[in-house]
Amino acid sequence: MSKSEAITLQTFTQGLWKENPVFVMMLGLCPVLAVTNTAMNSLAMGVATTFVLVCSGFLVSLLRHVIPKQVRIASYIIIIATFVTMADYLIQAISLDLYQALGAFIQLIVVNCIILGRAEAYASKNGPLKAVVNGAGMGLGFTFALLCLGVVREVLGSGSLFGLQVMPDAFQPWSIFVLPPGAFFVLAFWLMLFAWIEERKRKGGKAA
Amino acid sequence: MSDADAMEIPPQPSALRLIATLGGIAVMSGLLVVSTVQLTAPRIAENRRVALERAVFSVLPGAVRRESYRVDETGVVQTEANANLYAGYDESGALIGYALEGAARGYQDVVRLLYGFDPETETVIGMTVLQSTETPGLGDKIIHDEAFHENFRLLDVSRPVEVVKAGEKTEPWQIDGISGATVSSQAVGEAIRRGAEQREAVLTFHRADRADPIDPTDRTEEGGTQ
Questions:
Q1: Which end of chain B has fewer CB within 10 Å, C or N?
Q2: Domain ranges across chain A
């Protein structure tokens, strides 16, 4: 096992940019499209997912020598479901309005492939500390992606940001951006932007 | 290297070991969930109470105290558990009105709302949406739209309410709908219309309550003004 490998900055930043779960790996698109109609929902969803990623990564990594291969997926799912249920209750305790806004998508974190993917591909092969650091990075990368969509959609679709009005009164909100099609449009533009940046970076690297 | 390790087929562990592992994880998971529930239960109950009170007081302008009741086919009983009727009183203890729950199918899912009912004038004096999944930007205007909520400051419900097109309200029992949110506005009207039987029960209860001379609370003095 790669236990001897030190935790590097790479362990953390991997999820932020190079392997960003949404913009690069295209994972977890269901919540990305569904709950990003406001910046607040995006942030809450990102934080909840990060919490589950970090906690489940830690536990999976801790138990990686105990869990037999044959039942590992079942075990991971129970562990993930546990933390999702905890997040569910914690959000209810923090704010009922937020809980209602996020609706069923909190429970659906269980089936978010980023989390099971991390458990299977990373946490089960690395030490607890590394798993936590990597999970936090992935979670932040996911939150960043959600906010990218949420901010654009809320500003254009409701003329506000985190519930505060940022556009002049004369601004007529483009309702389409808070509706499902808007999510696809905004995601497409972000993907285009990221692909363009990557392309430039690659070309620049060749030239240099 | 680690890939090769993963590919290597380890000896099949005994079924007991598999069951024990899953069982162990399940027990641990159960403990974590139960402790979270225990820990958050008071906060969640408090949040729900605050949310309910905020809703009740928002549909009964001036109310500062509430009493919970349950209304159904058999009549009205005072209860805290699964209450669906709330009486709101102002600072001097005078009854402002009753808050009732209503529900009707909207564009996407059921719209649940709470509205204030003044039994003396048989009017709706306030409305707030408790739960809706109406389309953001269109149907969800029923939640915040000022002009729409203006309809419910004084809405005659002694006869069936009607939802009309925006700006076409001419009678006190009509509701100006929201353009672009016709189905959602209709749902709100329907929810209130459907409450007619409940309001009848509340009226009966209210009149009996007022007339009851044994009632020792200061509310009886209000009864004299009837």
A1: N
A2: 11-207
